[in-house]
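Batch manifest line 134
LIGAND: zinc ion
JOB: complex structure
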Amino acid sequence: MDIVSKEKRSEMMSRIRGKDTVPEKQIRSLLHQQGYRFRVHVKHLPGKPDIVLPKYRTVVLVHGCFWHRHSGCKFAYQPKSRKEFWQKKFQDNIERDKREQKALQSLGWKVIVIWECELEDLKKIVNKIARLLR
Ligand SMILES: [Zn+2]
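JOB STATUS: finished
ARTIFACT:
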């Protein structure tokens, strides 16, 4: 039997997507260590991006693999129950991501997406960011 009601569960789930997730914090401290100056939760930009590097006119988005459907990733698994519910949710997320990234790009911002699973290799992320900011 489910102890947690459906409403409660979706509330908990939505909180996971909230501000200041662990991966996001890790990326921030990583950028900080590398000496990058950045701003967080920039409200005036499309999608209120988590991490913004004004000097490079670049936005860093930290995406959870499950919510943002990292293609081919082990974390982007399909939940076995309530298939339609999840399908719809995933589709919405993917479309929102696309829309936000396009909006940012059309304003002249470069978008770097860091996937949650990439946090397993921080050095790789450092290299990726350095390469893309060049
Ligand atoms: Zn992934």
